[in-house]
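Lecture notes, unit on binding sites. The following record was shown on slide 14. It pairs a sequence with zinc ion.
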Amino acid sequence: MQFVDATWEAWLTDNVHRGCTAQSMVEAMVGAGFDPKVAGAAVQRAIGGDAGFEASSARGKLGEYQYDRGPVSGGNSIRAFDRDVKVLMRCERPQVVLFGDVLSGEECAEMIERSRHRLERSTTVHPETGREDIIRNRTSEGIWFQRGEDAFIERLEQRIANLMNCPVENGEGFQVLHYGVGAEYRPHFDYFPPEQAGSAVHTARGGQRVATLVLYLNDVPGGGETVFPDAGLAVVGRQGGAVYFRYMNGLRQLDPLTLHGGAPVLSGDKWIMTKWVRERAYV
Ligand code: PD2
Ligand code: ZN
């Protein structure tokens, strides 16, 4: 088991000054045999010791986020594998694209029927341990599907990989979520905050999350918008539509403006399906 000696302290100080991300330092230390918690704490100490980095590290990144060109194609309509998807809105900061007609009504109904009887209370990642916790911030119920589980799921995955312009292998399996009246998912980041020790457990497989597609499986009669509070943006989902947002750029910086949540459902219920994609193959 490794411990943080003077050589490692010097390495950390040097890397912080070179502008390395907290996540890359944690990953390098875990790769060298450190316990993720020990590595996370050492990186946090190194960043915290440098006043210039304090404010930005608290928001999960080092340095100002540089908006580069995203992978989603231009145009008002995108041919995605077997379907023409409509582009309804694009936002540059944060990088958000709203789509219509990603799924047919029948496909949405099929995903709901496959999920209805298998739902379990949703969890979130504990910041220190990386374990899944049930907490009040997230009052939905959910179910995970295996990637390539059957031909139906595989077809949807190919379409979505095409739309997000990213290999199928980089995607996590679909997650279907159900919210009843009053249920919500309070604002959070979908990426794993690099300064939290528990994140290394998740990024060890496939690296960091880079983008999310939230697919709307039904029309919600009241509430349930997907909100980006720091961008002043609220998306009202429509059945078959989806919202895409990207939070990691080519420099591996993370965009804090993608803070987002699911607003409380005020009437009826809400069904969504999520696709998270990683930097590398998620195997
Ligand atoms: O329910 C939503 O609209 C929503 C919004 C943002 C869900 C998630 N994120 C999520 O599951 O990460
Ligand atoms: Zn989210």
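Take-home: The mean pLDDT is 87.
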